[in-house]
Amino acid sequence: MENIYIGAEGNFDKVVWLPNNSTEQHYLNVDTLDEGRHYSMPKFPEFPKNLVSKGNFSTYSVPGMISEDGYYEKIDIYRLLTIDVGSGTRKIRTKELNFYGWGNMPPHSESSAIVIEGTGNLELYVDSKFGLPGSSSINYGGDIDQVAIYYQGDDDVVIDGAAQCYGCFFPYRSLLIFI
Predict the structure, then answer these.
(1) Same domain, 95 and 125
(2) 99 and 136 Cβ atoms separated by less than 8 Å
(3) What digits encode the pLDDT tens for the residues 85-139?
(4) Which distant-in-sequence residues (6+ apart) come within 8 Å of 56 by Cβ?
(5) What is the DSSP secondary structure assignment for residue 154, as one 8-state letter?
(6) What average pLDDT does the segment 37-46 reach?
(7) Alpha-carbon distances, residue 83 vs 21, 110, 117, 179 (angstroms)
(8) CA distance 57 to 77
């Protein structure tokens, strides 16, 4: 539980929204910044073009494992997907990354989740479709510096309900919406 700070001219009632019937204390205090802050966006990287094509990948029937760099047309996550990053940098590119919101937190074999294995980093490049529905997660409870997600699609990205992402997310054209 942390404090929440809204922009210098922000209106608490329009910025902070709590789910209906929530019984949790979501924050300690809400305060307004004295002045606006401006942050420069990091340079958006070129998406890797030389990755080996791996086709489609799904965890519909059983939990899955990815332990090599690669390009996937589509990754569908119904159950746990473990990505072994080793001690280096694992690069995964996909046209679509779809989560189906099964399971509970923390992730277990029936969760719609990505778990990171190893001490290295994951660079996840998503071309056109990405969303994180309720009860889905990426790197739950992990080091946020271990995961970078780059999204260049035109659609807004929705992170819904109890979904959690412990990583850095960089949208190129779209908005990031938390519901």
Answers:
(1) yes
(2) yes
(3) 999 999 999 999 999 976 677 777 778 999 999 999 999 999 999 988 888 999 9
(4) 72, 73, 74, 75, 76
(5) S
(6) 80
(7) 36, 16, 6, 27
(8) 8
In 3-state terms, what secondary structure has residue 56? strand
Dist CA 127 CA 18 (whole Å): 32
Over its C-alpha atoms, the chain yields an Rg (Å, rounded) of: 17
Residues 111 and 32 in one domain: no
φ and ψ at 14, to 5 degrees? -95, -15
**4 lies in the same domain as 33:** yes
Confidence at residue 20, expressed as pLDDT on a 0 to 100 scale? 66
CA 88, CA 48: separation in Å to the nearest integer? 16
Q: Which domain holds residue 2?
A: 1-38
Instruction: Return d(Cα 31, Cα 109) in angstroms, integer.
Output: 40
User: Does one domain contain both 33 and 61?
Assistant: no
Write the CB contacts of 35 (distance below 8 Å, at least 6 apart in sequence).
Answer: 8
